[in-house]
Amino acid sequence: MSPLKITTRDAATGPVLEMLGELDYANVTELHEALRGLALRPGQRLVLDLSGLEFCDSSGITALIAARSNAQAE
């Protein structure tokens, strides 16, 4: 089991969240907290880099869908 590590960086198009490890029920709140701290300006995009994600359960997928919905609403 790999712990979840989330790093945030700014890009020209908007914030980028890079996730490493496992996104599951036990640590999905870390993603929620990281997303809560972000603010998108008009025209920016939220990028979620999942290339380092080793595992994602249904609660992780639900959080990713919620992140997409919130970014679209902004």
Distance between the termini: 34 Å
Name the shape in a single word.
globular
What level of helicity do the residues show?
A: 25-40%
How many separate helices?
2
- Relative strand content: 35-45%
Strand-pairing-aware structural class = alpha+beta
Largest sheet: 3 strands, mixed
Low-pLDDT regions: none
How many strand units?
A: 3
Rounded to the nearest angstrom, the radius of gyration is 12 Å
The topology string of helices and strands comes to EEHEH
* Quaternary structure type: single chain
- With strands numbered from the N-terminus, the spatial order across the biggest sheet is 1-2-3
What is the average per-residue confidence, as pLDDT, rounded to a whole number? 93
Structural key phrases:
74 residues, 3 strands, globular
What do these coordinates show?
- With about 70 residues, the protein is of the alpha+beta class.
- The protein has 2 helices and 3 strands; from the N terminus they run E-E-H-E-H.
- Strands 1-2-3 form a 3-stranded mixed sheet, covered by helices on one side.
- A hairpin with a 2-residue loop joins strand 1 (about 5-10) and strand 2.
- Helix 1 packs parallel to helix 2 (about 60-74).
- The protein is globular and about 35 Å long.
- It starts with a strand and ends with a helix.
- The model has no long low-confidence stretch (mean pLDDT about 95).
Q: Care to give the gist of this entry?
A:
This protein is of the alpha+beta class and 74 residues long.
